[in-house]
Amino acid sequence: MTADTRITLVRGDITRQSVDAVVNAANSSLLGGGGVDGAIHRRGGPEILAACRALRASHYGRGLPTGQAVATTAGRLDARWVIHTVGPVFDPHEDRSGLLASCHRESLRVADELGARTVAFPAISTGVYRWPVEDAARIAVETVRATATQVEEVRFVLFDDRAHEAFAARVR
Ligand code: ADP
């Protein structure tokens, strides 16, 4: 981040945020899934899935690699773009934290390319991908703080109290 970047925390639903860009905890197929991904496609409507299918056809026939990020329209969400990023599945036998950091860094890089100034992130990898939320919060906040970006507000949107507390402990 820069001196002008603020990290804010909200307990709530990422699909209800008014921001320039919403980050999706996608899976590599880009064709939707559960959790954040399902919620974004449900509320954002079919335009997002159509854009994802087009991206698959043009660039990501083998799927979007873990740790990378790519943008589409935000459909009917109150945002201009969705930035899809694929978090790593937690593995207690392998350190994949570099990939989780990469999700945050790459999402901010895409946000800068788009000119997004406000970006909402979910707690990537902490749902179906089972990453312990206290550790994910540390990686997410450290990475945002270490990344040079024009984004003015990085808003972490946490679905439950535990995730909110984990992020609050890192942002304080
Ligand atoms: P992943 O596959 O990367 O683990 P998930 O979508 O399964 O992603 O979960 C990521 C986190 O997002 C979890 O902590 C989950 O509780 C939370 N979550 C699920 N739905 C929403 C939502 N609508 N808004 C914000 N966070 C959500």
Structure, described:
It is a single chain. With 172 residues, the protein is α/β, with parallel strands linked by helices. It has a single domain, classed as 3-Layer(aba) Sandwich (Leucine Aminopeptidase, subunit E, domain 1). The chain is built from five helices and six strands. It has a six-stranded mixed β-sheet, sandwiched between helices. Helix 3 crosses helix 4 and helix 4 packs parallel to helix 5. The longest helix is centred in the middle third of the chain and has 18 residues. The radius of gyration is 14 Å and the shape is globular. The two termini are 16 Å apart. Bound molecules: adenosine-5'-diphosphate.
- What is the oligomeric state here? single chain
The end-to-end distance, rounded to whole angstroms, is 16 Å
The helix count comes to 5
Q: Can you tell me the overall shape?
A: globular
User: What order do the SSEs take from the amino end to the carboxyl end, as H and E?
Assistant: EEHHEEHEHEH
Looking at this structure, what is the CATH superfamily?
Answer: Leucine Aminopeptidase, subunit E, domain 1
